[in-house]
Amino acid sequence: MPEVLAIDFGDEKASPPAILLDDVVLERGGKAVIDRLSLPLGPKGVTAFMGPNGAGKSLTLRLIAGLIAPTAGRIRFAEGVPLPQQIALVFQKPVLLRRSVRANLDHALKTFGTPRRERPARLADLLALGQLEPLAERPARVLSGGEQQRVAMVRALAANPKYLLLDEPTASLDPQATAAIETLVARAVAAGVRVILVTHDRGQAGRLADDICFLHKGRLLEAAPAARFFQAPKTAEAKAYLAGDLLL
Ligand SMILES: Nc1ncnc2c1ncn2[C@@H]1O[C@H](COP(=O)(O)OP(=O)(O)OP(=O)(O)O)[C@@H](O)[C@H]1O
């Protein structure tokens, strides 16, 4: 069993955590698929969860989002449990309505309670943000994967969320489409949105993340500033993962 290393996020942890995972356990099929996960997440920036398949990254994201409840332990938010619209989620495969891009975004604004008179301007902003104006009247479901993900991203941002949780948002996209999504993430971060990202893409983690949390078999093995993690991973498992070795 590998040793769990101390969490080392450097200076950022001088500020109190916005989200605190406190000894979180999640059992599935009679075993702990998340095993005593304790982690403070600071108020700003991007944290990337990395690790091999089955490490528990997606489940951790779902726990933070409140979509599933831990078997034991707690997830605490400094500002109290967020409202559903304060936590936005984007998955690898976007699920869009069978309507135009414009109608998808308008529906989101309506759902989030944007007053009717404000909606046209907000809609225009969202279309511009995603560079979606030329696609506005197209049925969302016939767009390319990259275009659909741009719609999903700006839809997620429609509610001005505090937290943006991204589960392998560019896993099936080409470099150009990936760059467009990363630009949207960077804009959200600049606007103060706290981003938590699950990715297998080391380049992406290097470009976007301030901190890396490395999970393996449901356990948090490392938590460190991104540069430090990539330059000097401390566990054998993280070293092997970064070297591209098969981790069994
Ligand atoms: N309902 C369930 N019943 C049993 N096991 C489950 C269930 N849901 C998830 N698991 C297991 O929990 C573990 C963690 O799953 P999770 O989806 O979080 O992994 P991940 O790190 O996101 O992997 P990937 O990179 O493949 O997406 C896996 O071994 C998975 O099989």
TrEMBL record:
Record-annotated membrane-spanning stretches: none
Q: Which residues form the ABC transporter domain?
A: 19-242
Q: Does the keyword Nucleotide-binding apply?
A: yes
Would the keyword Nucleotide-binding be found if you checked this record's keyword annotation?
A: yes
Q: Which PROSITE patterns does the record cross-reference, listed alphabetically?
A: ABC_TRANSPORTER_1, ABC_TRANSPORTER_2
Stored InterPro entries: AAA+_ATPase, ABC_SmlMolc_Importer, ABC_transporter-like_ATP-bd, ABC_transporter-like_CS, P-loop_NTPase
Give the UniProt keywords, A-Z. Answer: ATP-binding, Nucleotide-binding, Transport
Please give the Pfam families that the UniProt record associates with this protein. ABC_tran (PF00005)
Q: Which domain of life is it from?
A: Bacteria
Give one GO term, molecular function aspect. ATP binding
**Name of the protein described by the UniProt record:** ATP-binding cassette domain-containing protein
Organism the protein comes from: Pelagibius litoralis
